[in-house]
Amino acid sequence: MNNFVRQSLEDFLNEIAKARKNFGYPVIVAFDRKTANNVLKQEFIERYTGELFLDPMNSEVDIEQGVSYHQLSDFCLDQPRLTFENADLSDSKATLMMRTVRGKQLQLSQAVGSTRRQVTRLAKASPINGPSLVFDIELKNTRNAVSENGRVYFSYAAGTNYAFYGGTTQFELDKLGLHFKEYFEAYTVQPGQREIIEYTLGELANLADLILKPKDFKIRTHGAPGTRLRNQASFGDGAVVLFVELEGFDSSNAIPPDRNDKLPYLLPDGYSANVLINSDFITKNLIIKQLKESASGISLLDWAPLLTGGLGYRATGELSIDGFEFYDNAGPNVTTFTKYNATYTCPPNMTQPKILE
Questions:
Q1: How many CB atoms lie under 10 A from the CB of residue 146?
Q2: Spatial contact of 196 and 155, defined as CB atoms under 8 Å apart
Q3: Which helix or strand (DSSP H or E) is residue 96 part of?
Q4: In angstroms, rounded to a whole number, what is the distance separating the alpha carbons of residues 357 and 354?
């Protein structure tokens, strides 16, 4: 495959079928940068009705104490945007960027021994030319959990490598960036203010009547093919990947992959989201549960794993099926057949192999 082109759906399905790639998790969810940023944009807009937005910044930064200063007046930042040019499954970095859409920035100098300051630069920010604040988020280490409503979120205050591109030297960029980090951290200690600097990437519904009930998760990021090449249209593209633990599924040995080559890029060409569900979970918690609770007359006695990786059940009784695909071991080889509105009778203690793999 070309390293700069996403797989076709057919190629992706062929690769994912070679071996299980669930890493012990019942559900893996992936969605791309555009989807994530659309969610963040919508939340940014909705925050204005709930007054959950950052106050305009009015502060002063000592670039060099007693010599050089920056004054930020009425500074306003716009929506957060994620990019994945540094994303890797081993450390799961994402880059967060916000633009300045309003405010004035004064650069002042003060001669040694003088009490007077002199304006050396004046800049006015607008949505067209406002400088950007950029910093890295280590998603696997930020404050994240599945809350009662399954919210996946991150905090402005949990980043690293803050840089504000309103300075002329790297030292100024870093110094101003650190000032913004301290500004965000102040929201974490003010009662009722933490929500202002936390943004939601998605929600995993955790309702009482749902079969898929998340109880924990790990976040990773995965750069798309060509994401690190600035001359490529795919620069910065990537996916947020959630490795989700569910109630009723043993994930005690589950661990996300630690290298990109252990997991195919989960979004084939033309797709913005994907959900992989562990077939063992489907079999035991959906199909078998439904059969046991139904009045079909079939009795499932016990189960054991098969050499093929599927599940084998000993069953007896009679089951009426409607458009259900079965795998039958009537002979030495497994044969597939489909019956519609038919009745299937299991002889006593017959092993029904791999209802679903």
A1: 20
A2: no
A3: strand 93-109
A4: 6
Tens place of pLDDT for every residue, the chain, 357 residues? 445 578 899 999 888 888 777 899 999 999 999 999 999 999 999 988 778 889 999 999 888 877 888 899 999 999 999 999 878 887 778 999 999 999 999 988 888 777 788 898 899 999 888 999 999 987 654 445 555 566 777 889 989 999 999 877 888 899 999 999 999 999 999 888 999 998 888 777 666 667 777 888 888 888 888 777 677 666 788 899 999 888 878 888 999 998 888 889 999 999 999 999 888 788 777 777 766 666 555 555 555 555 555 555 555 555 554 544 444 444 343 333 333 333 444 444 444 443 333
> Quick one: DSSP state of residue 105?
E
For residue 303, which amino acid is it? W
355 and 348 Cβ atoms separated by less than 8 Å: no
Q: How far apart are CA 84 and CA 94, in angstroms?
A: 5
**DSSP-assigned states of every residue in 301-324:** EEEEE-TTSSEEEEEEEEEEESSE
3-state helix, strand, coil in the chain (%, to 5): 20, 40, 40
End-to-end Cα, the chain, rounded Å:
28
DSSP string for residues in 84-150: -TT--TTT-EEEEEEEEEEEEEEEEE--TT----EEEEEEEE-TTT--EEEEEEETTTSS----TT-
Q: 354: left (phi > 0), else alpha (psi -120 to 50), else beta?
A: left
Q: How far apart are CA 257 and CA 19, in angstroms?
A: 14
Distance CA 198, CA 143 (A): 9
Is 59:179 a contact under the CB 8 Å cutoff? yes
Token pair 């589950």: residue? 254
CB 240 within 8 A of CB 95: no
- C-alpha distances out from residue 274 to 12, 13, 26, 215, 216, Å: 12, 12, 14, 20, 19
For residue 7, how many other CB atoms are within 10 A of its CB? 21
